[in-house]
Write a structure and sequence with these properties.
The protein is of the alpha+beta class. The chain has a single domain, classed as 2-Layer Sandwich (Nucleotidyltransferase, domain 5). The chain has four helices and four strands. A four-stranded mixed β-sheet has the order 3-2-1-4. β2 and β3 form a beta hairpin. The longest helix has 21 residues. It starts with a helix and ends with a helix. The model has no long low-confidence stretch (mean pLDDT 93).
Length: 120
């Protein structure tokens, strides 16, 4: 089990290194996916601050969605984090998928953020 966790951590670190190299100083849209919910944050690594965040745990989202663990919820979280990022004056980010593959809920969140107005 510890080998599996270390592989996930290595995959996330490898991706984050690539984003730092090619990101051009843009904020990072980071995704965390659990079994029951999905979370997204726009992070400015230079200042170490979270600029915008959204999750399927928020009260308005829980009332509107059937569950927090499907593609519909991920797309809604993506649109919400994009709306909040645009309100904070951020329109271009780099997408940090973490150790997750780019498909399913992670891809749905990215597509929702693009629909919401973020460019990456």
């Amino acid at each position: 089990m510890s080998d599996r966790l270390s592989l996930k951590a290595r995959r996330a670190a490898r991706l984050r290194f690539q984003l730092r190299q090619k990101g051009g100083g843009r904020p990072r849209l980071s995704v965390f996916r659990s079994g029951r919910h999905i979370y997204a944050q726009v992070i400015d690594d230079a200042q170490g601050r979270t600029l915008a965040a959204a999750s399927s745990l928020e009260k308005a989202m829980r009332e509107r969605l059937r569950t927090g663990a499907d593609k519909e919820a991920a797309a809604a979280v993506g649109r919400l984090v994009a709306e909040r990022a645009l309100a904070a004056g951020i329109s271009a980010v780099v997408f940090d998928r973490g150790p997750y593959l780019y498909h399913g809920r992670v891809k749905a969140l990215a597509d929702g953020a693009r629909e919401g107005g973020l460019s990456f």
